[in-house]
Design a protein that fits this description.
This protein is of the alpha/beta class. The chain is built from nine helices and twelve strands. The protein has a four-stranded parallel sheet with strand order 1-12-10-11, sandwiched between helices. It has a four-stranded parallel sheet with strand order 3-2-4-5, sandwiched between helices. A four-stranded parallel sheet has the order 7-6-8-9, sandwiched between helices. The radius of gyration is 20 Å and the shape is flat.
Length: 278
C-alpha cells in the first residue's frame, strides 16, 4: 500500500508559537493556566496539563496573580481587563493572524461599518473577533444567514482565519447587490488555504483519505469536509488507535493530512498504524 502524506498538514505557525510560549511559561513559572484550551487538540492539552499548565474555563477560575495564557483563538478586551483586575500575569498566545482579524474588525466598527464576522457562531475565535467590536458585530456562517439580518448601507466583512475562500466569495457575491459600500478584509490564514488546497489535491488521487486532528478543531473538521467533497472515502480521527482494518480493505493508495493543531508525533503514529494494518 502506498501512503501519501500531505506535507502542509500539521502544526501551523500560530500553534507552534503558542506551544513554545507554553514551554517557556512552564520552565520559567512552573506552570499556570490557559483561559480555555490553548489549542483544539486534547492530547496536546493533556500533555501540557501534566506539566503544570492547567485549563481554566472562566476568568473566575484564575487565581489572583497567577500566570495565564490567552489561547491561540484569542479573546475580547473585556476578558483581558477582567484578568488585569485579578492581577494575572498575562501571556498572549493569540495567533498573529487572529489578532489581525481582531484589529480589522475593531477598525471597521470605529469607521462606522456594520461588521460581519464570517465564522462559526459557537467558535471562540469568531466570538473573540466580535468582542473587539464591542459585541456589535454579527457572526454569519455563510450567505444563507444574511436573510436574518437588517443590513445597513455600509457593511464590512472579516473572517475567522480557518474559513474557506469559496465561502467568503459566496458571502461577498450575495452582499454586493444589498449594500452601497462594502469593505472586505480577507483574514483567512494563508497556511489554512494551502493546507486545504494540498489536501484536496491528494484526496482526488487516493482510495482513502485520513484526516488527523481534534473533533473540536474547526480547521480539521473543515479539512475532512473538503476531502470528503471529492467523493473519496474520508475518515476524521483524533488518534491512531481509532483506525480500523476494514477501512483499508481493497485500498491501494491512502492519503494522510492533519489539522493545524495536530503534532507531528500524532501524524507519525497514524502513518505507522496504517502500515501495520495494511
Amino acid at each position: 500500500m502506498e501512503i501519501v502524506i500531505v506535507p502542509e498538514g500539521g502544526f501551523c505557525f500560530g500553534v507552534r508559537r503558542a506551544l513554545t510560549m507554553a514551554e517557556e511559561a512552564i520552565a520559567g513559572h512552573g506552570g499556570g493556566a490557559t483561559l480555555g484550551p490553548l489549542i483544539h487538540n486534547k492530547q496536546v492539552v493533556a500533555r501540557l496539563e501534566s506539566q503544570g499548565l492547567r485549563v481554566a474555563e472562566e476568568v473566575a477560575d484564575i487565581q489572583p496573580g497567577e500566570l495565564v495564557m490567552l489561547r491561540t483563538h484569542g479573546t475580547g478586551p473585556d476578558t483581558i481587563r477582567a484578568l488585569e483586575e485579578r492581577r494575572a500575569t498575562i501571556v498572549d498566545a493569540t495567533c498573529p493572524f487572529v489578532a489581525r482579524a481582531q484589529r480589522e474588525a475593531a477598525k471597521f466598527q470605529a469607521e462606522g461599518y456594520q461588521v460581519l464576522v464570517l465564522g462559526e457562531a459557537d467558535h471562540p475565535e469568531a466570538r473573540g473577533i466580535a468582542e473587539h467590536t464591542g459585541g456589535r458585530a454579527h457572526i454569519v456562517e455563510g450567505a444563507e444567514d444574511l436573510a436574518r439580518l437588517r443590513l445597513g448601507k455600509k457593511v464590512a466583512v472579516v473572517c475567522q482565519t480557518t474559513q474557506r475562500l469559496d465561502n467568503l466569495r459566496s458571502l461577498v457575491h450575495d452582499l454586493l447587490p444589498q449594500v452601497i459600500e462594502l469593505r472586505v478584509a480577507n483574514t483567512i490564514c494563508d497556511a489554512t488555504s494551502k493546507r486545504q488546497e494540498a489536501s484536496l489535491a491528494v484526496a482526488r488521487t487516493v482510495d482513502l483519505m485520513i484526516v488527523v486532528g481534534g473533533r473540536h478543531s474547526a480547521n480539521t473538521t473543515r479539512l475532512a469536509q473538503i476531502c470528503a467533497g471529492t467523493g473519496t472515502p474520508t475518515k476524521h480521527i483524533e488518534t491512531a488507535e481509532e483506525l480500523q482494518a476494514e477501512w483499508l480493505a481493497g485500498v491501494a493508495r491512502v492519503g494522510v493530512t492533519a489539522g493545524a493543531s495536530t503534532p507531528d508525533w500524532a501524524i507519525e503514529r497514524v502513518v505507522a498504524r496504517v502500515g501495520e494494518l495494511s
